[in-house]
């Protein structure tokens, strides 16, 4: 008998991510199988035991598990309480060093664990693709360091000209947006370096800067009589709830209330 409390799966609009899978299993056991992509797994409750490369391994809430493509593995709950897990399936060409992943698929790295958690959070929110892309490059950077056994200090990033060029790109595409891959290609820069140097120079991440500019545009549209739903789409948001979430965070009120707040002062 298979006990399943919840399963949610979707494919986000983020290059390099093939699928996101969230599940709570009680007595489910995976048979031996293999994927054609990388499996990036975190456990939120319980624990998982599995076999990979002829050896027994385990995943706990304190670890991050990276399973390589084409290598068979299974999986089951470590105890009767089951487990909650979140999985991101990454394109096979994003990482190398399969052997290192077979030998040590689970790593204890609080920074990486937090980065993966925050990536999942961004992936659940439509319209936050730039944030998800930015978080993904830092996850990949950390994973590559583990696969090469080179975890250490991050690269110093001080390039005001590059930071300014990215700001100009974001300003020019407030409504349409731009992917991190497009920006990196146009500016001939590594994506992780690009995000880091922008953040250090301006004190804000690129996706936060773009959201702020979009809220600014939405404010002007609302005060010009544009309906909240139309203002959201025109300003580059996914939909009205997407605008409302960021609008309330920045201004402490909803777009609709903001739009009507000054009516008594109008002639």
TrEMBL record:
Keywords: DNA-binding, Transcription, Transcription regulation
Transmembrane residue ranges: none
InterPro entries, per the entry: AraC-bd, AraC_XylS_family_regulators, Homeodomain-like_sf, HTH-like, HTH_AraC
Matches recorded under SUPFAM superfamilies: Homeodomain-like, Regulatory protein AraC
Gene3D superfamilies cross-referenced by the UniProt entry: Homeodomain-like (1.10.10.60)
Keyword set includes Signal: no
Pfam families xrefs: AraC_binding, HTH_18
Domain HTH araC/xylS-type, residue spans: 164-261
Protein name per the record: AraC family transcriptional regulator
Keyword Zinc (UniProt): no
Source organism: Nocardia callitridis
């Amino acid at each position: 008998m298979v006990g399943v409390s919840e399963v949610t799966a979707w494919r986000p609009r983020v290059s390099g991510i093939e699928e996101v899978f969230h599940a709570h299993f009680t007595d489910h056991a995976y048979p031996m199988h293999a994927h054609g992509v990388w499996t990036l797994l975190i456990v939120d409750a319980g624990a998982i035991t599995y076999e990979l490369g002829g050896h027994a391994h385990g995943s706990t809430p304190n670890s991050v598990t990276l399973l390589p493509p084409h290598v068979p593995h299974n999986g089951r709950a470590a105890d009767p309480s089951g487990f909650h897990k979140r999985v991101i399936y990454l394109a096979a060409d994003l990482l190398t060093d399969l052997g290192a992943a077979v030998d040590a698929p689970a790593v204890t790295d609080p920074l990486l664990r937090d980065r993966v958690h925050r990536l999942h959070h961004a992936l659940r929110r439509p319209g936050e693709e730039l944030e998800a892309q930015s978080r993904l490059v830092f996850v990949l950077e950390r994973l590559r360091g583990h696969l090469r056994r080179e975890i250490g200090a991050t690269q110093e990033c001080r390039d005001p000209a590059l930071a300014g060029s990215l700001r100009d790109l974001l300003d020019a595409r407030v409504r349409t947006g731009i992917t991190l891959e497009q920006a990196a290609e146009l500016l001939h820069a590594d994506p992780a370096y690009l995000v880091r140097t922008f953040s250090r120079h301006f004190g804000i991440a690129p996706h936060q800067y773009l959201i702020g500019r979009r809220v600014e545009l939405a404010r002007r549209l609302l005060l010009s009589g544009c309906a909240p739903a139309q203002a959201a789409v025109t300003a580059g948001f996914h939909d009205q709830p997407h605008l409302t979430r960021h609008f309330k965070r920045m201004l402490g009120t909803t777009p609709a209330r903001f739009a009507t707040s000054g009516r008594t002062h109008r002639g």
